[in-house]
Fold each of these.
Amino acid sequence: MLRVGLTGGIGAGKSTVANRFAEHGAVLVDSDRIAREVVEPGTPGLAALAEAFGEDILAADGSLDRPALAAKAFADEESRKRLNGIVHPLVGKRTAELMAEAADDAVIVHDIPLLVEGNLAAAYHLVVIVDAPVEVRVRRLVDVRGMAEADARARIRAQATDEQRRAAADVWLDNGGAQDAVLAEVDALWADRLVPFEANLRLRKPRPPMSPMIAPYDETWPQQAERRLARLRLVAGERLLRADHIGSTAVPGLPAKDVLDLQLTVPTLADADALAGPLADAGFPPLEGEWWDDPQDGSAAPWPKRLHVGADPKRPVNLHVRTPETPAWRLALLFRDWLRANPAERDAYAAVKEELAREHAADGTVADYADAKQGWVNDAFGRAEVWAAQTSWQP
Ligand SMILES: CC(C)(COP(=O)(O)OP(=O)(O)OC[C@H]1O[C@@H](n2cnc3c(N)ncnc32)[C@H](O)[C@@H]1O)[C@@H](O)C(=O)NCCC(=O)NCCS
Ligand SMILES: Nc1ncnc2c1ncn2[C@@H]1O[C@H](COP(=O)(O)OP(=O)(O)OP(=O)(O)O)[C@@H](O)[C@H]1O
């Protein structure tokens, strides 16, 4: 099952987007709704709230007086934390139960207002954020929902900043304009990304191979890599020694094929094999066959590794799982750091890549392109080693 985390500030349009996903066939898990269920009359949740905030948060019929609790809970940080401490564990438990009930081929859309605040992004295959400017959100909450303006602003203050949401977003949906516009984006996201992503995940199928087209440096590459590394750290757990963004997309200013190279370091290949299933479930199926890094001078036997590929059709990822005793593991880190520290070498490398990409665009073969590039890279390793010695570089 594909787990999509859907979030955004209050009034941004999460429910609007979530309902459209549901129309397409997504299984919706709605945190606000669960948060209501766990404090229904007669529940231990409601009793705990009354104990913590006083009987005056109860209406005459014994149900929760939501505006009364909101007034107390959003008044200060300590009260809000007390509220969260009571409700969130109950919501978490019920959420896990609902997710476990979903079919293997489900696309779960989890509408969760506090995904960023709770630092939960790594638990999803993809995080979708709905956004609209603060003033637009306040207007909608006041005019359409009938919320008091001060209440709307108090909740906005209690939530994540735009910058924090940007860092967590794999997909950013702008709902500052007409509803039709955001719904059209949702339709495209469903058809072009979520449906094939779910199928790739279930069938453990990598996305199709990349063309050798070189893209200009994208300054969001490091953040995109970091979000995937966070997911990988979560599933790899204690077997993981370290997780790094390597390759050309890890070098600021370097044009590159738009594929993120990530390296997981594990003690032994047996650890890599034990992780094959969990990595596949997290959206990184293993590529079939045996994979080796070739020593550049041809002197030693090739170094074995495991290779996984991202299942997300819109975010190509090559995931190299290596052990620290292979020289390829160390070279991946050295080459990256050397290029980062030496802009002239980086620019020379960019020129070589662009020249080769032009030549191979005609025949369209990625393998030939990679072979030709390796010549420059092998020479560069020599210069990188000199730099490593001079600067006492350590991986
Ligand atoms: C305080 C309560 C009773 C007020 O109820 P009300 O009907 O006015 O709001 P509702 O529950 O529909 O929430 C509307 C929106 O408020 C924001 N919000 C709600 N709780 C919180 C919170 N603890 N911190 C920050 N924002 C919150 C979210 O954007 C949410 O989508 C209610 O919000 C609540 O029980 N909150 C605690 C549970 C919670 O954190 N829910 C959010 C995700 S699990
Ligand atoms: N593009 C839009 N133009 C105008 N109104 C909109 C638009 N999108 C959503 N709305 C309206 O704004 C209000 C807030 O939207 P919605 O309920 O989807 O937000 P939400 O993020 O789920 O809110 P909450 O955080 O309270 O759960 C709703 O009344 C909705 O009908």
Note: The radius of gyration is 25 Å.
Amino acid sequence: MSAARSLSAGTLAFDALLDSPSSTLRAQSRMLALPLVDNYVGLRATAKLTRRSASVRDGVAFVEPVSSNGAAVAAASVAAPKEAEKKTEKAPPARQPQAGSSPQAQKDFKDMQTGGVDQDSTCSVTVVGASGDLAKKKIFPALFALFYEGYLPKHFTIYGYARSKMTNEQLRDMISTTLTCRIDQRENCGQKQEDFLKRCFYHAGQYDSEDSFKELDAKLREQEGDRTANRVFYLSIPPNIFVDVARCSSRAASSSNGYTRVIVEKPFGRDLQSSGELSQGLAEHLSEDQIYRIDHYLGKELVENLSVLRFSNLIFEPLWSRQFIRNVQIIFSEDFGTEGRGGYFDNYGIIRDIMQNHLLQLLALLAMEPPVSLAAEDIRNEKVKALRSMKPIRLEDVVVGQYKEHTSKSGVSYPAYTDDKTVPSNSITPTFSCIAMFIDNARWDGVPFLMKAGKALNDKRAEIRIQFRHVPGNLYKNSFGTDLDKATNELVMRVQPDEAIYLKINNKVPGLGVRLDRSNLNLQYAERYKKKEFPDSYERLILDVINGDKRLFIRDDELAAAWKLFTPLLKELEEKQVAPELYPYGSRGPIGAHYLAAKYNVRWGDQSV
Ligand SMILES: NC(=O)C1=CN([C@@H]2O[C@H](COP(=O)(O)OP(=O)(O)OC[C@H]3O[C@@H](n4cnc5c(N)ncnc54)[C@H](OP(=O)(O)O)[C@@H]3O)[C@@H](O)[C@H]2O)C=CC1
Ligand SMILES: O=C1O[C@H](COP(=O)(O)O)[C@@H](O)[C@H](O)[C@H]1O
């Protein structure tokens, strides 16, 4: 066999070795391959280039057209080229921080890679569903915080839009009750609030009326004058009216000379089919470029730090594989029930509400291969690959639970989920679930990824735990007693509350003799970054929309991959009417979670602290 033929026949093997998570294997294969290496690298590089310009989604190959600013124009544009051409947004010119903003804000500003809006253009954010809970609780306060920090462009306008009748003044009163100056020592906070509120307006209108949006358009134009007008519409409304609003806003209130971007809140459907229909409905009126599907967990400080930790420290990435990691746990818990949102929740349940989106996004970020760059499409390509490599979820790897009434020792009574008046008394919707998942690729083969999410549990937390394998031939094994599991390293990223990253290690207790102790190498954010306040995830994400940075938003194929993974399980649970295991309000959740973990030789990290 000629060298070229044997090389070509062996390409897969070389690929596997050179891509192997094992540094030893990689090093050995490099030595073996040395004489052939020039030839091989050439072949492999060609293959990579080809892979980069084409992608495979749901088994169909898409060639990614590249937009003028270098970003790939995603699937909707491919699917509907004529519509997409019309609606592909213009890239905004470069943007500066607002005059008078803090030096830190100015510095952070420079650090942002995605320049946005120039000082002569205007930017409006229309909050559709302004009378609702999310708008009051999160969106308006986030916009104020951005204004306070000087991140909003000089000429900006905020519009509230909903059916409720309200005057501008009433909207301002409503908003002002939720604005807070998060740091006591902040200067001019009151003045800043007044300045902010002056820029807030309200328009009452129907969600399916182009005329109402035309009226809004006229009002926006008054504010915009003859400047370049960039417009953001934040759809903070129930999903059944997303498409109506996309249609009316795009036909009657799109910017004629700047960008028009639309933020879409979850839930993006209930399953693969409904999510596909929703995506198709939106794609009739908007290009994929214009759609920002928000998952607020991606805007959390610790989640942003996950990639930094992994890719900018030498010590983690070499360990990031089945060779060293025994299991990964992604845990979400709340110490309150569905209070006030039972009507919504009963139609979705904890798997759709938290796991299919927030927790799966964390998993994808953690498990993805190193992206080619930090560009949005490069990161999202890797996330999609990780999601598409996941094994189907098996019912026997799933536990579901529902909270029941509980009276504490002091006599305080907590309701059952089904006590909520908006929830049917015979509901079997899970308020708790844990799932063992597996990724079928070279890096993660056989490593259990355990997800756990629940409401009305004993504490409120969101964290990622990475438990490492035992130290081979551990010289100190006799110091750990019989339970070697207790001596393994564990890396914990606590997303909330009290953001922290800590690594559990073994060390010697000071003194004579050798006694070992478990302790934490601990990065407590509050301690390390005393003077810093952490922006709410909505601040980061809204700013990204203004700047056109899609890194932290869900792409259409990513959404489809997530639903493809969960839909069969959700169908099976519903068809088989799987009854949830009841757990008392305020407890640690169903005991089944421990059996599931034990099946894979895993001990929940959050239960041992
Ligand atoms: N609240 C939260 O914590 C979170 C919410 N979300 C998502 O954000 C979006 C907004 O949430 P939230 O503010 O809680 O929602 P709301 O139920 O408060 O609805 C927002 C506004 O939409 C209008 N609206 C409500 N129901 C209907 C309806 N059936 N038909 C037409 N209009 C309606 C109402 O305004 P009006 O009557 O004045 O027109 C309401 O003020 C939803 O998609 C939700 O799933 C996501 C994460 C968390
Ligand atoms: O999306 C949702 O998230 C919240 C939890 O968000 P957090 O930022 O407070 O952790 C959850 O309560 C809600 O049910 C869900 O829809």
Note: DSSP finds 21 helices and 20 strands in the chain.
Amino acid sequence: MHTEVFSELFPLMSTANPQTLEWLLSIAVEHEYPIGRAVLMEDAWGNALYFVVSGWVKVRRTVGEGSSVALAILGRGDFFGEMAILDESPRSTDVIALSPVKLLSIARERFIQILFKDPQLHHRMLQLMVRRLRHANVRLQMRSSPPAVKLAHTLVSLGENYGNQTAQGKEIFHIPFKDLADVTEIGVEETTKIMEKLHEKGWIKIDTVNQAIFLVNFRQLMNLAGKV
Ligand SMILES: Nc1ncnc2c1ncn2[C@@H]1O[C@@H]2COP(=O)(O)O[C@H]2[C@H]1O
């Protein structure tokens, strides 16, 4: 990967200086995981930061015996694994491949070393971590919203963060309804029902052949999510 691609693809790298980019790329390790594989395990000790080059992962935390909640879906351009390397504690959650994924990892000591050398990178990382905290707060606030509003909010966030603009609307990966339900904190049946309704209204198009969801009427979805 070229340094320009590295800084364009990853918001975390957008303000890093050229030497930082070059050095990080020279030490980055490539990984590929098949669908369903755990990339990180909650409570395990971790010593690397990961970047998502392609595909999707689910951030999942155990709650009580045998059940879990999905906290986020991360995709191309995101990073994860910063928490354990910054506070030197075990991994806070599982991270599971929702599709085949390609990742880059940077060893903890190397990354910490560069944070001290590149204040722009340091600041950018803080900004992105604050953004995650804001999202977590919005999720808490959304808890009391009707299921359709919550689901529209999830779809709009995925579209804003990862959507490819196409003639048919914003295209996102066909996330299994179970995972969509999980991350929205509503039931699978309810999710299926609402997705079908949105499909009937023509606001979304579900393309199972190409594993894609098209957010055809993004404006209406934003309206429903209370974002405009
Ligand atoms: N609420 C969240 N939203 C997005 N990513 C998260 C959230 N909670 C944990 N993560 C990521 O999941 C990772 C699991 O390993 P770490 O605790 O090292 O670092 C964690 C974060 O990068």
Note: Residues 119-142 form the longest helix (24 residues).
Amino acid sequence: MKTLVTMGRGGTGKTSFTALAAKHFIAKAQTPILLVDLDPDQNLAEMVGIDLDKEGVKTIADLISETFIKRGGTTTGIAPTERIESRIWEDGLYEGGSFDLIAVGTKWVEGCYCLPDSALKGALATITKNYRYVLIDSPAGLEHLNRKVASQVDDIFDIMGPSHKSFEHVKRAHRIIREVKIGMNRFFIVGGYLFPESEEERAKTTLPHEYLGKVVQDPLVQEYVLSGRSLLDLPDDTPGYLSVKEILGKAGY
Ligand SMILES: Nc1ncnc2c1ncn2[C@@H]1O[C@H](COP(=O)(O)OP(=O)(O)OP(=O)(O)O)[C@@H](O)[C@H]1O
């Protein structure tokens, strides 16, 4: 099992990178892959052509809220992790032919972080074991790292945007990952579709991480996102997809 995480600042193209990576891994894997959307905005499902409401699939935040908050569930009896895990299998997992998807959803009630976080962490750790590839899309920013929802991952892809802050983001993200002790094998940096080519050299020389290349700006990707079409249906030879494939190839995928 390989777990890949996409992260970065807002609007750098994280979710589209994850969706295009999904297209690649679906073609590569013989069994369904798992997509995990940690972003409360939940764009990943839409980018791969799924409407969770229509599918009757609940977010983990909904399940946690129903189980522990509305019903007043306690930590006695069955462990919270197991309760949530069994609910995810029933109501929180979209199952498709080539991929399954879990969405974390909007934040639960303020002040109730410990239980949901540990439940989610434990459940994710168990559920992800069933897949050959797990792709996790993160929200913008770094807070999710502190919450350490995923505690062991293989590769992190930090997508850089067209601002100096992206360089700072890479440094901060890497530091937090080490500080909160998220287990990780490799930390890569990727130029997002708006990352200037003129900055690539600086990324390669000033950051202590491997720079894998830049996602090509592709009008067809933009058109598909705008019209709500699945990025999985993009032609195989569209430049945006080819660039993501090449980037993943450099990481050995
Ligand atoms: N390769 C590309 N070529 C052209 N446009 C792109 C490309 N990738 C993404 N975009 C456009 O950029 C916008 C933002 O992309 P995306 O949602 O993937 O970013 P994000 O970093 O996940 O955003 P957020 O921080 O809001 O979660 C989308 O509307 C999409 O149309």
Note: Residues 230 and 245 are 17 Å apart (CA to CA).
